[in-house]
Design goal:
Shape: globular
Helix content: 10-25%
Order of helices and strands: EEHEEEEHH
Number of helices: 3
Number of strands: 6
Radius of gyration: 16 Å
Largest sheet: 6 strands, antiparallel
Number of domains: 2
CATH class of the largest domain: Alpha Beta
Distance between the termini: 24 Å
């Protein structure tokens, strides 16, 4: 699912940011210590609800509730971190989570390790062995679940 926009509020060093994305590959570039990694961590927070706790509360406002929203394919998916729980929102419907990401969110969001690459990871598939490439393709096409079928 292509992501159209990312909105991050009160997340680590980011007070508020709205990032419009273009179709295809997106690279986040900037000067050292400008918050690039915190933007990626925001997406990972929405995707995994990790780490648990309050590590994402910004230093500039300790009472803030960090939130990340992705607008993609006509859907709005967000997470807001409260003191003891995370509140997910999917097109206006709330889901509460103390740990795992609700399955409804995972299904619509459809983001995994194959969609997001960190700053120090090797280029995806280009340098992989043929076996690793097949594993990645099976994961993307969900053929890895064939044994469960």
């Amino acid at each position: 699912m292509p992501i159209d926009k990312i909105i991050i509020d009160n997340f680590r060093s980011w007070e508020h940011a709205e990032i419009d994305l273009s179709p295809g590959l997106t690279a986040i570039c900037g000067n050292p210590q400008s918050g690039k990694t915190n933007g990626i961590r925001g997406i990972e927070f929405l995707r995994t609800n990790r780490p648990l706790g309050n590590k994402f509360v910004p230093r500039f406002n300790k009472k803030a509730s960090p939130s990340v929203k992705i607008i993609a394919d006509g859907n709005e998916i967000s997470i807001t971190k409260k003191k003891t729980k995370s509140i997910y929102n999917l097109n206006g419907q709330e889901f509460y989570s103390g740990g795992d990401v609700p399955s409804e969110i995972e299904e619509v969001l459809n983001l995994g390790d194959t969609n997001i690459q960190g700053q120090i990871e090797k280029p995806f598939i280009i340098t992989d062995t043929p076996g690793e490439v097949i594993k990645a393709i099976n994961k993307i096409t969900k053929l890895e679940k064939v044994d469960l079928w």
